[in-house]
Amino acid sequence: MTLRVITLIVKKPDFVRIFGVHGQFAARPGARQHVRRPPHTPPPAIQRTPSIMAESSAASEFNQFIGTDGYIVSPALVEAVNCSVALERPLLIKGEPGTGKTLLALHVSEGLGLPMESWHIKSTSKASEGLYVYDTLQRLNDARFGEGNVANVRDYIKLGPLGRVFKAPNRHVLLIDEIDKADLEFPNDILRELDEMRFTVMETSDEVVAQERPVVIITSNNEKELPDAFLRRCVFHFIEFPDVPLMRRIVDVHHPNLEATLLDQVLIKFYWLRGQTELRKKPSTSELIDWIAALRRAGMSVQQVEEHIPFLGSLLKNEQDTDSLQSYADQGGTLPSEWSALGPKYNQ
Q: Rounded to the nearest 10 degrees, what angle do helices 50-62 and 75-87 cross at?
């Protein structure tokens, strides 16, 4: 069977459409072609997928602490604090004395909007004192003089800092300050309580269980090594001594609007002192802040600070170091007044 093709030619002024068997359009050679374009469709709006939204929400929940106006923190320290909060692990902070370890807890408390409890450790501190103290002496005196309810032992149980934080109805920041001052067994003695967030009062058999796990910040001056079992349960951060740009920001918090040339001379002398290997104790950040306060109150000029170091006792705290500096001066040593004198590390 033969298929016949019927072709219909329709003449129009400007073009000829030829309808073939397939129903396609063919323009006459040389005629102006009109291209039929599909209607414009706007691109679909970009939508946040559930996974992206979840990641954004998780990041927001993780980054709870970003620092405060009164405490300049490095990005690494901010990460350490937020990691500790997220994991609900104690944050162990080490660093030189005077680098702001103790103040960190105060500003974490402020930044997170949580109340704070402090436990300042001494060489005689016992782990049990952080939980509670049974005041046997008070009970004995009450029994002797007929005062108080001697029969109720609970009246003579005084909770320590750790116990008060556990007992509190809301979350707290707990500072355990200078843990390395205590004996070697002290960190191990509080391991179980920090892990389980509970303890038992032996005299009454009452169990104290934390309502909410506190944010625990532990500081150490690195005077003693801490047990490995204790370290495994902590998030660790070492506060490096501030470099010059960070130190300028720290000084600006405590002494805003300090004359730039005076600040330069102060920092040149300060970092030069810290670079002297003969010094037994290098001046710290807190001592720098005190020294600047003394200079401002005494009305010291830039030239005076350039020529010598006023109020040296604000920076050096033992006679060997002051004698060493005096010996340097007696031998004709000069004090730097330019950053270049401190070496390439301090090129500003």
A: 100
Q: Which residues pair with 11 in a beta bridge?
A: 16
Please, what is the average pLDDT of the chain? 84
Contact, 27 vs 15, CB < 8 A? Answer: yes
Residue pair 229/186 in contact (Cβ under 8 Å)? The answer is: no
Residues ≥6 apart with Cβ < 8 Å to 184: 224, 227
Q: Side-chain half-sphere of 253: how many Cα atoms within 13 Å? A: 15
CA–CA–CA angle 76, 81, 85 (5° rounding): 145
13: pLDDT strictly greater than 70: no
Mean pLDDT value across residues 266-276:
95
Q: Whole-angstrom Cα distance, residue 38 to residue 61?
A: 47
Q: 190 φ, ψ to 5°?
A: -110, 10
The pTM (predicted TM-score) of the whole model is 0.76
Q: How far is 317 from 284, CA to CA, in rounded Å?
A: 11
Residues shown for the chain: 348
- Name residues whose C-beta falls within 8 Å of residue 302's C-beta, 6 or more positions apart in sequence: 259, 261, 262, 265
Compute CA distances 98 → 47, 214, 304, whole Å. Answer: 50, 25, 26
φ, ψ dihedrals at 183, nearest 5°? -70, 170
Q: How far apart are the two ends of the chain, measured CA to CA in Å?
A: 96
Residues in contact with 134: Cβ distance below 8 Å, sequence separation at least 6, in sequence order: 153, 156, 157, 158, 203
Residues 6+ apart with CB under 8 A from 110: 68, 70
Q: Are strands 8-11 and 16-19 parallel, antiparallel or unpaired?
A: antiparallel
Tens digit of each residue's pLDDT (9 = 90 or more) over 247-267: 999 999 999 999 999 999 999
Higher-confidence position of 28 and 205: 205
